[in-house]
Amino acid sequence: MKSPEELTDLFRATGRKVTPQRRRIFELLQGDGTHPSAEEIYRRLSAEMATVSLKTVYQTLGELASMGVILSVDVGTRSMRFDPNVETDHQHLLCARCEAVRDVVLSVEVAPGEVIDGYLVMRTDVVVKGLCPSCQAELGEAAARWTASGSARSAAS
Amino acid sequence: MKSPEELTDLFRATGRKVTPQRRRIFELLQGDGTHPSAEEIYRRLSAEMATVSLKTVYQTLGELASMGVILSVDVGTRSMRFDPNVETDHQHLLCARCEAVRDVVLSVEVAPGEVIDGYLVMRTDVVVKGLCPSCQAELGEAAARWTASGSARSAAS
DNA sequence: CAGTATAGTTACATTGATTGTTGATTACAC
DNA sequence: GTGTAATCAACAATCAATGTAACTATACTG
Ligand SMILES: [Mn+2]
Ligand SMILES: [Mn+2]
Ligand SMILES: [Zn+2]
Ligand SMILES: [Zn+2]
């Protein structure tokens, strides 16, 4: 992701103002690999700025996403997750238990521009659903059972 | 998917009743490769049975899904899509314009049971987003531009 | 065939993430 | 400094999906 300084310039250059809350959001996103939700950003931000509104967070994240500075990622949890990693083409690991999301680089066999089964491909998104290390540890014995039968019923994303 | 007859037996064997609306839902799903939403099933069904309620459709689809007879698939459109194809392990093509969903068989490089990056894998879902043949035809010239810039901004599923 | 448990219907209400609205207040940027 | 944006607060609205409740209808069993 661009640095907070670059973003400041970019925002001003495009007629947007850089407020303290926006600057803090830039900083919070910097190098964050946890794919936070809007609510999570809000939670972290309101720890420091008691008066921020959730609305402002949504607005700023939406703006960043529409500028291509961050990605909004849908991994099938009900809420969108935001991803500052726009440099590296990657896919996602999702923990089925705690909903932690982590980057993973996988070679995808379908590239944009290709035609497959008549479809002109734009992008391919892969979500690998499993149990993160800490959830495996917490479940111990039961982890294997979880992955086998567990809540692995629904398909896709 | 199991045949309507098999489903009838299965329902009765598990203490469920087989009503005309349920039987029709079984039949509508049979061999349907379009991955209809609950609303779509409801639309089709109410064309024949004026009094069906959406509630009943949701209920029956939910029951079928929890019995493993069909899959409920989340491809990132806001609504769940239902899939009678539980026999073949497969992935999905999604049209970014009309939201048509089609099966596609892709070899996935991450198998359940494997551990990748510390995650114990349960399942891998791939959604290939692109333009379906008819949308390409309708867009003509503009199709290529659509896939390039178009609404390809958000990631995953 | 009749009794009973199950399902369907209708009409709401609710959930949860997100977006929209309004109006008043604050403060960034030139 | 001035004007334009952004923020805030307090709501309302969305949309898919689920829940509730009361009543009716009917599928299955014996
Ligand atoms: Mn990522
Ligand atoms: Mn399918
Ligand atoms: Zn976890
Ligand atoms: Zn299409």
Task: Summarize this structure briefly.
Two copies of one chain form a homodimer. Chain A is α+β, with helices and mostly antiparallel strands and 157 residues long.
Q: What order do the helices and strands come in, and which of them pair?
A:
The structure is a homodimer of 157-residue chains.
Chain A: H1 4-13, H2 20-29, H3 38-48, H4 54-66, E1 71-73, E2 81-83, E3 91-95, E4 101-104, E5 115-116, E6 119-131, H5 133-139, H6 142-148
Parallel strand pairs in A: 3-6
Antiparallel strand pairs in A: 1-2, 3-4, 5-6
Helix pairs in contact in A: 3-4
One manganese (II) ion binds at residues 35, 83, 85, 90, 92, 103 of chain A.
Chain B binds a DNA duplex (30 and 30 nucleotides) through residues 12, 15-22, 37-39, 51-56, 58-59, 62, 78-80.
Detailed description of the structure:
The structure is a homodimer of 157-residue chains. The first copy, chain A, has helices at 4-13, 20-29, 38-48, 54-66, 133-139, 142-148, and strands at residues 71-73, 81-83, 91-95, 101-104, 115-116, 119-131. With 157 residues, chain A is α+β, with helices and mostly antiparallel strands. In chain A, β3 (91-95) and β4 (101-104) form a beta hairpin. In chain A, α3 packs across α4 (54-66). The longest helix of chain A has 13 residues, at 54-66. The mean pLDDT of chain A is 93. At the A-B interface, β1, β3, β6 and α6 of A face β1, β3, β6 and α6 of B. β6 (119-131) of chain A pairs antiparallel with β6 of chain B. One manganese (II) ion binds at residues 35, 83, 85, 90, 92, 103 of chain A. Chain B binds a DNA duplex (30 and 30 nucleotides) through residues 12, 15-22, 37-39, 51-56, 58-59, 62, 78-80.
